[in-house]
Amino acid sequence: MVKPESEKPVAVVTGGAKGIGFACAARLIASGFRVAITDISEPDLKTATASLGVERSELMPLTDDVRSFDGVHSNAKRIMDAWSRVDVLVNSAGVSQPKGLLNITEQEWDLVIAVNLKGTFNWCKAIASHMVGAAAGRIINISSVNAHTGGTPSAVSKFAYAASKAGILGLTRGLAKELAPDISVNAVCPGLIETALTLKMIGEQGKEMIARGIPLGRIGTPDDIAVIVQFLATVQPNYLTGEIIDVDGGAFIN
């Protein structure tokens, strides 16, 4: 039996036009969610909307700069005005920064922290009040294994990115305590994921070299992360919150 529109759960996916965010949106739509995808790039949003191929009643693309507290709250209001509920928030928007301490500028540092950490805070702040009382809210923050390692020696990411993603882990744990029992808050830490950006940075030879050091023999795909997000959003055990889930093919086994 098909659920009435008003009974269908709603998910918000930031950075949902490409990469991990897009893969998460696709899996949540397949799981019966109405999904709002946000992204700073309007052209990317248009491409993603066409690729997802669902009716506009099921998908809401929103141009969004996660750094803007007021802008995020305005978009959250648009979602609530249209659908009257948010069940799942996936914070996937992020930027990388390959520069080390001696070369990075203050503006470049501020951008990484503002997008990755403040952006996650902004959306948690905007959405949590709509989940409290529903006793079923789920927040899933996309961090990185770089939060554990301090970055990589390659050109993909260094300390600023690692610091911002480590901040997300602290935010996740703190909110898991504060928002329980109404809202569960968990984080997913991807390892190296095959996207256009990473391939541009490491090349095919670099990809093969890195894959040889991963127990499962390959670098990850956006869908490898999305399937874990789908689990947390749909069939997550009710006794799970504040957890940090590494999805890295075993690359950083402790």
Low-pLDDT stretches are none
Structural domain tally: 1
Describe the sheet with the most strands.
7 strands, parallel
What's the CATH topology name?
Rossmann fold
Distance between the termini: 46 Å
Would you identify the CATH architecture?
3-Layer(aba) Sandwich
CATH superfamily label: NAD(P)-binding Rossmann-like Domain
Shape: globular
GO molecular function, one term: oxidoreductase activity, acting on the CH-OH group of donors, NAD or NADP as acceptor
Family: Belongs to the short-chain dehydrogenases/reductases (SDR) family.
Protein name: Short-chain dehydrogenase
Keywords: Oxidoreductase
What does this structure look like?
It is a single chain. By secondary structure, the chain is an alpha/beta fold. The protein has a single domain (5-244), classed as Rossmann fold (3-Layer(aba) Sandwich). Helices cover 47% and strands 15% of the residues. It has helices at 19-30, 42-52, 69-83, 106-131, 146-149, 159-179, 196-212, 222-234, and strands at 10-14, 34-39, 59-63, 88-91, 137-142, 183-190, 244-247. It has a seven-stranded parallel sheet, sandwiched between helices. Strand 2, helix 2 and strand 3 (59-63) form a beta-alpha-beta unit. Helix 1 (19-30) crosses helix 8 (222-234). The chain is globular and about 50 Å long. The chain starts with 9 loop residues before the first strand and ends in a 7-residue tail after the last strand.
